[in-house]
């Protein structure tokens, strides 16, 4: 909001929310191949792509989806460590004052997050846990509400709204920096709406007879997009209104607020709890893909296929698979190390949002829908869908360029592991 201003900010958020809902609705119709009543189920995003598109597109989609998952894991690790560092610093500022120096190294917190994810990654079908979505919803509501409330209080204390119609003014930043920041902001918004890669997996958990799966998923998508958009806009509005050009990239970790410190700690704790679970949910498709591939490649290897029964309690046991243990632990370690090398949250998130939004949220859902429903080529509907896809491609390229410029700028002054 700070980069886009009072006019473009809300307009861009509404545009992204509309595109996300529309393409998600198209994707929901691709859950079953062929007949919506009796057609074959597609249990994952990749299954849907394989059922509707040709070989080269399937491979490209696979590379993009799994690369995006790796990126999301890195982004979540960085975000969680920033919130943990914010908790440490807020307590420090409370003790020595707002003007004090409270330097904190984020690397130990990234390692802590990584260790937790190593253990959680060994839980089979983690994304199927019934209480997970409830905890995520509670945590999201908690930190969003706290950020919104603190913004409102700050606006009241200021005696009015701050900010400009066109965003950060030239002078506060250079004209070129403003352009790069605007493009990066587009990527950040795109990342916030990029959940299509797990939409099919979520739809597969719906206990409803066909074709109600698609109807229920569309309703759930409409509600979730509407609610998240309202919260995004309210938090963005209040943050920009409270601090204007000086608004931090993250209201809860950028120390626009220092007190009440305990409330900031609660909000950041909620963020960490949310990200701990979200990391696993997003990584499950990649975990499953690699493990299935390994089982096909080495069907006679005990290291890959053997399930060792480990007694836990009376009558229950845990199925330990050595390949799963090793592969998932290595994945978490690698993403943690990369996070320690590139701890630039806004730039990294902007880049991830840029490269993932057009292909996975827009292009493939549109292409699958065209094949699934046999939309005639060069018909009005076909042309409109292609124009939407092309417009989103242009936005993706521009926002990726802005985010890369931000990363390059950060790397000039950053020393790894310090």
Automatic annotation (TrEMBL):
Q: Which residues cross the membrane?
A: 6-31, 66-87, 130-156, 179-200, 220-241, 261-282, 325-345, 351-371, 383-408
Q: What is its main location?
A: membrane
Q: Which residues form the Amino acid transporter transmembrane domain?
A: 2-408
Which GO cellular component terms, listed alphabetically, does the Swiss-Prot or TrEMBL entry include?
membrane
Its annotated compartments are:
Membrane
What highest taxon heads this organism's lineage? Eukaryota
Q: What is the lineage of its organism?
A: Eukaryota, Viridiplantae, Streptophyta, Embryophyta, Tracheophyta
Origin species, per record, is Musa acuminata subsp. malaccensis
MF term (GO), any: amino acid transmembrane transporter activity
Q: Which UniProt keywords apply?
A: Amino-acid transport, Membrane, Transmembrane, Transmembrane helix, Transport
Instruction: Tell me the protein's name.
Output: (wild Malaysian banana) hypothetical protein
PANTHER family this protein is in? Answer: OS05G0424000 PROTEIN-RELATED (PTHR48017)
GO biological process per UniProt: amino acid transmembrane transport
